[in-house]
Amino acid sequence: MCCAALIVVLQSCATMYIPPVKNSPLFVKKGEGQVQAGLTTNSFYALGSYAITKDVAVAVSGSATYTNLFKKGLWDIADPYAQKYIEASVGKINLMPESSIIMEIFGGYGYGDAINSNAKFYKYAVVPRYKSYYHLGFVQFDVGRRWSFMEVGGAFRFAVSNVHFNYSDKVTNENINCTFNNFHFEPNVFVAAGKGKVRPIFRWGFGLSRHFSQPIEIANKEYFKFTFHLSIGASFRF
Fold first, then answer.
1. Which H or E run contains 212?
2. Who's near 192: CB < 8 A, 6+ residues apart?
3. Best mean pLDDT range from 70-74, 126-130, 153-157
4. Which end of the chain lies in a sparser environment, N or C, as judged by fewer CB atoms within 10 Å?
């Protein structure tokens, strides 16, 4: 049954795990702060960060798919999937204080959940409804430049997720639970331009996921998932 569940997960993995918007503050001194909010190709997002010393910063972020706002029946095209995610991290900032290139590294933890409220029919399984939640551990390296009128940079994240997947089998009514692990590589680049403390910010990135621990029935089956994402938002520094 876990084998069938994993096949369903592979079919819907892009919905269950959505690469989060990367929080890359590019701080250079104590007391700097930043908040951002915006829209991605599938979600709302908000994030914040603060340099508590000249060497250490904390960061938090969260996102929710647009489908969290839709109730079934509101529109005929409403997607039955909904996903939410939140994370927190601590980082070493200003790794090269004498250079104009800003570098920093963060490590943190994230939690997400996803639900499908409609029946889905796949080649190997029929799943009337599923719930999933996952824990994510990550390390992220940021690099960039800041000017009075612009900032540009990139983030490179390596992460491991532990996914718990639950559904009720339509035939037997048995409650099925499975757990499996994934590796994620998620680079992205960003540009914020404009004068003043509030600037528009644009991001482009992709995510590559691979299962490395899964039910023994298909342990020899490799699986890769590629996703591409865009976002636009507003960035406020203080």
1. strand 198-213
2. 150, 151, 152, 199, 200, 201, 202, 235
3. 153-157
4. C
44 Cβ neighbours under 8 A, 6+ residues apart: 37, 38, 63, 64, 66
Distance CA 44, CA 65 (A): 6
- Strands 175-193 vs 198-213: parallel, antiparallel or unpaired: antiparallel
* Position 25, amino acid: P
**Closest by CA position to 108, among listed 143, 162, 60:** 60
User: How many CA atoms, within 13 angstroms, populate the side-chain half-sphere of residue 133?
Assistant: 4
Element (H, E) at 177: strand 175-193
Give the whole-angstrom CA distance, residue 7 versus residue 9.
5
Q: What is this structure's pTM? A: 0.85
SS3 of 7, please? Answer: helix
Q: If one looks up domain 2-237 in CATH, what number appears? A: 2.40.128.90
**Structural contact between residues 192 and 201, judged by C-beta atoms closer than 8 angstroms:** yes
